[in-house]
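User:
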Amino acid sequence: MSSSRSLSQWKDNYSSYLVDRNLGFASYPFWIVLFSLLTAILIASLWFLWPAPLEFPLDDTYIHFVYAQNLAENGSWKFNFAGERGVGTTSPLWVLLLAAGHSVGVSIHLLAKILGIVSLLITGLGLYLLLNPILLFIGSLSATLLVVLSGNMLWFTLSGMETMMFLALGVLALLVYRSERWVCLGVVLGLLILTRPEGVALAIAIGCVEVWRWRGIQSGIIISGVVCALICGPWYAYLLWRTGYILPTSAIAKRDSFLIGIHSIGERNKLLAVLSYFPPLIYLGLMVSYLLEFVLGGVALPPPYLSIGSFIGIPYYTVSLWAVIGWAAVILPLIVSAIRRIGPVWYLTDWIQDSNRRPLIAFIVWVVLHNLIYSVFMPSIGTASRYAALNLIGLWLVLTIGFLRFVNRPRLLLWLAGGLTVIVLANTMYWNKVYDANLEFMQDVRIPAAHFVGDNFSQDEMCAAFDIGALRFFSRRPIVDLGGLVDPNVVQWYLDGAFDRYLLQSGASCLVLPGRAGASENVYYDFVDLMGFSNTDLFDIIKVTSFELNRERWLQGNLATNNYPDAVTIYRLDTPYSTDE
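Assistant: Predicted structure:
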C-alpha cells in the first residue's frame, strides 16, 4: 500500500472515530477554542505570577529593558554610552516594542508580561489552526494544551524575554505559508529574524520545501525572500557597520563564555574534557538529558530518587524512579507509535503536495536546522532551555501523534493519557516552584546588590560585572561589561591572560561577581580565579559585602535554569600599581 493511501486511510478511520463520538471540529466553533485557550493561559499565568506579578526570573531581561529605556528616552541604541561598539541585545524587535510602550507611559515590566502572554495565546491558536485539518478537534486541541500549559512554556512566557514572541511569529509564518500569501510571509519572516537571528532557519526551511515541491524556484518564494530581506536586512547591515560582525556581540560573547566555562569544568571531569572537543555532542547530550529531567518528570515526580550528577561531577542532579517508569511505560510507547504513524522520511514526499501537511514538513526542517545552528555555533540550550524552546513544541506534537494510534484501544489510551497527564501536571507544578525561587533570587540577591552599588559608590566610580542587566537597570549607572555582551574585545583580553589589565584600563574601582568570595560547593568554578584576579600583581580585591540565598532555595531555582550561583559578591579594587608598569 502506498504511503499516501495509508495516511488517507488512517485519517478516514480517525475522523470516523471522532465524528461517531461527536468530537469533530464542526461541533465546536472556533470561539470555543479561543475562549478555552485564553482561560487556561490566564489561569496558569496568574498562578505563576502570584504574589510578584511584575518581577522577572533572570538577569538578561533587564538588558532589554536598559536598551528600551535608552532608546525611548535618548533616542540611541546604547547600553552605557552613545558610540559604544558592541550591541548587547539579540532581539531588536522586542526592544522596539518595549521602547514604544515606555515612550507613551506604559510600564516596561507590565508590557513585557502582556507581550509574553499574548504571544503564548497566539502560539496556541496558531498551532491549533495548523493541526486541526490533520488531527481534527480533539487531537489538535490536546497538542495545543500540552504546549501552552507546559511549565517550561509558562516560564518563558513570564520571563520578560522574547522567546514566546519568537515561537508565535514562527507559527504564524507557517500558517501564512499554508495559505501561500507570499508578501505576508516575507513580512512575518522578517519580523521573526528581527526577534532572534536564528529565525533565518525557518526562512531557509520554507525555501527548501518550496524548491523540493516544485523542483525549482518559483516567483512566490522569491517575493517572500525579497520582502524579508527588506525588513530585517537594514538591522544586520547596521550591526556589521557598527560592530564588524553580522550577529550582535552578545551572541558571540555568550558562545565564547559557554565554551570557556565548559573547558573550565572539563578540567575536573574527564568525560566533559573529551566532549568539550565535540560541541555538537555536548548540545545533543544537554538537550536529551534536559528533556528527560526537566520536561518529562525526571526531577518533578516524587521520590525515591537516583543520583545521576556524579557522572558529570555535579552532584545535585537526581532523577525520580517513577519518572524512569513513566519514560518506559508512557513516553517511549508514544514516541515509537508516532514514528510508526509518520512513517519513513521518504513518506514526506507524499505530504509535500498536501497544503495542510506541507507546513509540518517545513516545521520539521526548521527544527533540524535550528538545532544544527546551535550545535555548531553555540552548543548551549540557554537559561531554562530557552534557546531550544522550539524543541518542546516538537516533543508535545510527537507525543500527541503517538496517542492517535490507540484511539480504538480505549483501555491502553486511558493508561497512556493518565500517565502523561501526571507527568505534565507534576512538571508544571515543579516549574511554578522554580519560577518562584528565581524571583526570590532576583529580589533578595541581584536587585539589592544593584541598589547597594547605586547607593554606596559615587557616580564617577565605574563598577565591573559579569551579569550586567539588573545591575545597570537598578543602579542607574554605566557598567563595565566582563561578559563581552557590549564590548566585543573582552574575550580576547581573557584569552591573552590580561583580564586584570583590561579591568584597570576600563577605570573600574568596583567589582560585582556571581558567587561567594573564595571556593564554594555551590558553584562550578570560582569567577575570581577564572578571571585571573586572585593572583594579579596589578591590584588587590577587597570584599565589601555579599548578598546570598540559602542552599536549598538556590538549588530549587538553579537546577532547571542553570541561571546563577548562590550569591553576588561586591569587591572594591585597591590599585596601588600603575597599568604602565
